[in-house]
Amino acid sequence: LTEAEVLTFRRDFPILGETVGGHPLAYLDSAATSQKPRAVLDAERDFLERRNSAVHRGAHTLAAEATEEFEEARATVAAFVGADPGEIVWTSNATEGINLVAYALSNAAYGDGDPALAIAPGDELVVTELEHHANLIPWQQLARRTGAVLRHLPVDDEGALRLDLIGDVITDRTRVVAVSHVSNVIGIVNPIAELVAAAHAVGAIVVLDACQSAPHIPLDVRALDVDIAVFSGHKMLGPTGVGVLYGKRALLERLPPFLTGGSMITTVTLERAEFLPPPQRFEAGTQRVSQAIGLAAAVRYLDAIGMPRIAAHDRRLGRRLVEGLAAVSGVRVLGSATAERVGLAGFDLAGVHPHDLGQFLDDRGIAIRVGHHCAQPLHRRLGLTASSRASTALYTTDDEVERFLIAVADAAGFFGVRP
Ligand code: PMP
């Protein structure tokens, strides 16, 4: 993207014109949540003002229009990731998507869905050492509920997955391999193909946490051949309150529901219920209609620019962040400087607590994320309790990145950092 294009896109994002403490806002926290263009805000407002209605119910005109738009939104999101609409389940966010799969797998033991999917004592679930807590704790809990064993693929000193250990960690007993496409702490794209090959060789399903890839790089679930993928709308220009669960159709058809209630059944007696096929089987209760429509508008916005171009922009800014940070004395950039990375750089400034750095930058209108980023095990492995993270989006300018780099260098001076 050229600087002129980025400046044009920025006019679509009202919040980017805000000032913080008298400084123009430099929003470098898109990995936590992205900002929303007017197209998304307008799509939600237009729906709520003119067509708001519950979907899949009622014979009236608004209900029919809302249902049509809701299903169109599903098709738009499906096309964005290379899936069929029937393979897309709406969730609240990625967290709910992962919990849905983990609970559905244990529910299989009660006779719903395909009992062959049930996780049994001694089965193994595999995560990696760099997962967000959202892709760790649901598997810990599944292991506790079922007597399965949770194993992990370690990372090396730089946070890269230890592919040399795949053969030790993924075994004949492995049933699930859960991995993030891109780490939310170090921004490196993980080697998914190797993990998928190893998992499928032993009949395990692969659950991909695509939260940090969907906004940044083209995501093709079929090309990746993952069985499940989840992501959150709010990180990819869409609204909060909506997430996406992709599942291969054949798997979703075997998977029992997680949440049960209205809108997911065919017949109900006082004793039992028959469930609808996917995706409705997984969408109990009144749906997040305006949010799904908002997310479809976000996807159209991203598509109009083109994910390959957005990826190139993020990659370039990511490289500049890493190179600029590495030049500041006392900064340790997390993750290899040469690995494929999105527009995200995690780092530590020697002896300065990330919260103090965050405050220093905030005084200049620069927003970054500080803390453990919901990845305590990875921080522990890297010898840290917390870190700082700057992340970009298609609306991030070179100027904002330079302002941030100057501010970090100034902070190093201010806090008396010694390399
Ligand atoms: N996984 C990763 C890699 C993330 O970055 C996040 C959000 N920080 C999540 C999962 C959870 O997303 P959400 O809170 O929207 O469910």
From TrEMBL:
Keyword Kinase: no
Xref: PROSITE patterns: AA_TRANSFER_CLASS_5
Protein role: Catalyzes the removal of elemental sulfur and selenium atoms from L-cysteine, L-cystine, L-selenocysteine, and L-selenocystine to produce L-alanine.
Source species taxonomy: Bacteria, Bacillati, Actinomycetota, Actinomycetes, Micrococcales
The EC number(s) this enzyme carries: 2.8.1.7
Keywords, sorted A to Z: Pyridoxal phosphate, Transferase
Family the UniProt entry places it in: Belongs to the class-V pyridoxal-phosphate-dependent aminotransferase family. Csd subfamily.
One MF term in the entry's GO annotations: cysteine desulfurase activity
Reactions listed under catalytic activity: (sulfur carrier)-H + L-cysteine = (sulfur carrier)-SH + L-alanine
Organism in which the protein naturally occurs: Pseudolysinimonas yzui
Cofactor: pyridoxal 5'-phosphate
Protein's recorded name: Cysteine desulfurase
Keyword Transferase appears in the UniProt entry: yes
InterPro entries assigned to the protein according to its UniProt record, in alphabetical order: Aminotrans_V_dom, Aminotrans_V_PyrdxlP_BS, Cys_dSase_SufS, PyrdxlP-dep_Trfase, PyrdxlP-dep_Trfase_major, PyrdxlP-dep_Trfase_small
EC class name: transferase
Membrane-crossing residue ranges in chain numbering: none
Domain (Aminotransferase class V) ranges: 27-404
BP-aspect Gene Ontology terms: cysteine metabolic process
